[in-house]
Amino acid sequence: MKIIFMGCVEFSRAALEHLLTLKQAEVVGVVTRRQSEFNADFASLEPIARSKGIDVFFADEADPSILADWLRSKNPDVMYCFGWSYLLKSDILSIPRLGVVGYHPAELPANRGRHPIIWALALGLPQTASTFFFMDSGADSGDLLSQKKVTILENDDAATLYKKLITVAQTQITEFTAQLSQGDYPRIPQDNSQATSWRKRSKADGQIDWRMPARSVRNLVRALTRPYPGAHCVSLGAEVKVWRAELEPKAPSNAEPGKVLKVDGREIVVMCGENAVRLVEHDFVNLPQEGAYL
Question: Residue 22 phi/psi, 5° resolution?
Fold first, then answer.
């Protein structure tokens, strides 16, 4: 089965590496980017493709019409578009015989839209999903090909959940690549009446508001930790990144949100709107004093 692979993030890289081990898959072309200011987890697929002698098309350097001509020249049976934060136009979607398979790490039809890993953690959800679907003109709205639920544990953060999703997705890729090559695969329409969408996050969404409950502060920090840009607080007018925070078991009932309760080595205990958090990993150069306010 001739496959075009499109992607430009770490998830894409892991998926492509796995796909290249499957006997049913003949990857005839790779579409990627040389650079991206948009994706914090950016990874160009050029090195993998070049090492296997696969033709590469750089989408950030060419007109979309040229991409369509290039794809047609490859005569693909299917295109896998994993880790590509750009909608594809109908002329692209119609080129592969079996269509274009996209990926969304959420339990579609719920939670369509932007930043699904970040929002799932920031909202404290206990579960998400690894979902592959046939792309259409909408955003994450096409027929489902494969979906597996993924549990989010209390100690998961962006990095560990990202790795979980890669592991689950690789199993799915093995399964549906075989199904597609045999012409016997599921195609389940989404129930649009059950659809919800997440909006694009902004920098303001990453600022810690100490009036939030401690659990919400911790969730925000674990959602935005590496490979993402990091949550931040403001100290003496400057932004400071916070990479890991834990719930503090004891907190006074009469301290105001943002007050530094304790400085323990490099760790900083801060009062929140409800309970307190311990900032375990952060970018403070000069530690705040006990009793100061963030």
Answer: -90, 130
Dist CA 120 CA 25 (whole Å): 32
> How far does CA 287 lie from the centroid of its chain?
32
Domain boundaries, the chain: 2-197, 203-282
Rounded to whole angstroms, the Cα distance separating 231 from 159 reads 14
Q: Is 224 in contact with 118 (CB distance < 8 Å)?
A: yes
Using a 10 angstrom Cβ sphere, with 0-12 exposed, 13-18 middle and 19 or more buried, the burial of residue 11 is: buried
pLDDT for 228 equals 95
Q: List beta partners, residue 263.
A: 268
One-letter amino acid for residue 156 of the chain: D
Please give the average per-residue pLDDT across 166-186, as a whole number.
98
**Rounded to the nearest 5°, which phi and psi values hold at 212?**
-70, 155
What is the CATH number assigned to the segment(s) 203-282? 3.10.25.10
How far is 53 from 31, CA to CA, in rounded Å?
14
The reply to whether CATH 3.40.50.170 applies to domain 2-197 is yes
Between 62 and 80, residue with greater pLDDT: 80
Q: Is 215 helix (H, G, I), strand (E, B) or coil?
A: helix
> Judging by beta carbons within 10 Å of its beta carbon (0-12, 13-18, 19+), is residue 247 exposed, middle or buried?
middle
pLDDT value of position 60: 84
How is residue 72 written in tokens? 């047609």
